[in-house]
Amino acid sequence: xxxxxxxxxxxxxxxxxxxxxxxxxxxxxxSFAAGVSYISILxxxxxxxxxxxxxAGPAYAWSWPIVFVGQLMVALCxxxxxxxxxxxxxxxxxxxxxxxxxxAWLAGWLLLLSSIMALGSVALALQITLPQLWSGFQIVGDGxxxxxxxxxxxxxxxxxxTISTLINAFxxxxxxxxxxxxxxxxxxxxxxxxxxxxxxxxxxxxxxxDTAGFGEGHDLGFFGVFLIxxxxxxxxxxxxxxxxxxxxxxxxxxxxxPKAILRAVTASFLxxxxxxxxxxxxxxxxxxxxxxxxxxxxxxxxxxxxxxxFGKAFLVCIVVAVVVCTLAVHAAAIRMMFAMARxxxxxxxxxxxxxDPVRKTPTIAAIVIGVLAxxxxxxxxxxxxxxxILSSISIVLIYMSYLLVTxxxxxxRLLKKWPLRDEGHGEAGFSxxxxxxxxxxxxxxxxxxxxxxxxxxxxxxxxSVPPFEWYFQWGxxxxxxxxxxxxxxxxxxxxxHQTGVLAEHAAAVAAHPSSGAAGEPQPARAGGGAEDGxxxxxxxxxxxxxx
Length: 547
Prior knowledge:
This protein is 61% helix and 0% strand. The chain is globular and about 65 Å long. It has a single domain, classed as Amino acid/polyamine transporter I. The two termini are 46 Å apart. It is mainly α. α3 packs across α18 and α5 (101-124) crosses α21.
């Protein structure tokens, strides 16, 4: 069995080289809620069910447990890291202690870009649900015009992102309070929905073992379309690291964050899987084309099965889930931008890392993230194909950033440099013990396989709507290559020369035993990785250069 280890609360940030500038007020449920709301089963499952079903039919539901097992391997690795380093911008800071400065910066860069694009994609989910609740939410046109659906989605998403920006800029207490209430509503609604759909089951589980003609004519048969449909699950079950990214604002983070990560991914799997299971078993007619249509999907099944008032009540809960998911994605993006900026690792770092002295939250970062998230949405109006590509790419970048943590972590395990000795680092809040190596290997294999599956230039994903151009189909590969190579060059040629904790965020530097005078600070290094000729783990507590 996995062994949770003892821990003490680290109320300060000095052991990581930072001063405590954020508001440490998040409790256990709020930490768990942050991970659950980012994954947001009611948002993701309802937003993407139609896609998975249209690709592989009822049997696509098998992708849900497969994705869960793979992501659980990653989550276990992250839980072990969160038990050591519950710091803002979790993936970035973890990579900084496991690998070189370049790969750490790239992990943060990719996750920051993906979070900004994901924020727009999540907010856009309101268009799938709100007009089905009330036609008045179709603000632009009547929904029959060529751009009505896309334009209205942008309007609703922009309003949602504006609200999210205001809430996140106000402070973490308001954000987590709203988020916790929303997650409670989401969890209760999910349980009631499972019971309601289970009561109306009209067919047996044999439907999940029937390919129903899907995959005929495809080069790889049903396996080929299943891999495509599996993306509907892969696009949902990520973001559990958010619980650790809010670690600087969490009470007793070394014990709270690891548990929150594992509970979030497990709860999401159980509830999301049961919704998929009973939704398909309760659908009145699986040949109904609306089930595989963007304006139908699981929402259509719920309305058909439960009727008007009850069905619409559940759709209201889906809207609540979209709202809190937007808040969580926004909050995670803010923490990543803040974490990189206080290390002087972004342009305009001083401004982006500025913490409001009253609200103790990175207000400027919250506003900048909100503005940047709206820009890709504008593309959706006239070129939905491009936005679809960007949405798909955002998930690819997340899986890549996760690999930039699990791969160097595996390398450290093989070199017997992980887990760390306890001296000087404090006790870890979670340990996998002897299971660490096999779990880490599976996490790397899973991450690599999913990245390849997600970036594969299939026309069904990257060239699904007119105009059908070759550069749309290869858009995922080209864009990922551009941001990866461009980001690496930006760091290597410019940013790495300025890297160092900004003075206003640096912890007080203790006297070194070899210093000439008591209390005299030692020269600090600028990096944090193997490029500096230092082991990134053994020396991770050495103070960085203060800008």
